[in-house]
Design goal:
Number of domains: 2
Largest sheet: 3 strands, antiparallel
Distance between the termini: 47 Å
CATH architecture of the largest domain: Orthogonal Bundle
CATH class of the largest domain: Mainly Alpha
Order of helices and strands: HHEHHEEEEE
Structural class: alpha+beta
Strand order of the largest sheet: 1-3-2
Number of helices: 4
Strand content: 15-25%
CATH topology of the largest domain: Arc Repressor Mutant, subunit A
Shape: globular
Length: 146
């Protein structure tokens, strides 16, 4: 994955340049979607992207949003964070980090990579190397007595 070392937020001109640097044709709809994503480091589900783009920029189809998010993932512009089957977030922060997911609230938060250490990891199979590691810690709200 190509890590973005870009400061947020990006204006529309910066977004178009970013797309072109990653070999992506900067169509109006792709710029709209990327402009939304790169306002800040954030985690959005495809449905949230669809709703926010349509509310802000005008109509974009569901297929266009899903196809564009997939393209952005393949080109390293966003990270795909799979929480569980059917629950995926798109993360505009591509720096090395992990996540905490609150199953009660649906909130996804970042954990700096240097805050997590794994001891006793198994040996890798022969002829392989680590490509990346995605850690999602799932939490629930604890019941606090009144």
């Amino acid at each position: 994955m190509v890590e973005m070392r870009q400061a947020f937020p990006l204006d529309r001109h910066q977004v178009a340049s970013l797309l072109e640097r990653h070999g992506i044709l900067a169509t109006q709809q792709r710029v709209d979607i990327a402009h939304l994503l790169f306002q800040r480091a954030q985690h959005l589900a495809a449905e949230q992207v669809l709703a926010q783009v349509n509310a802000t920029y005008g109509h974009v189809s569901k297929a266009t949003v899903y196809n564009t998010l997939g393209l952005f993932v393949r080109r390293g512009l966003v990270r795909e964070v799979l929480i569980e089957p059917g629950r995926t977030f798109y993360d505009s922060n591509t720096h090395d980090h992990h996540h905490i997911y609150n199953v009660d609230t649906g909130e996804l938060a970042d954990i700096p990579a240097n805050c997590v250490a794994i001891d006793g990891a198994p040996a890798l199979p022969a002829g392989t190397q680590v490509e990346g590691m995605d850690l999602v810690i799932r939490v629930r709200n604890s019941d606090v007595p009144s």
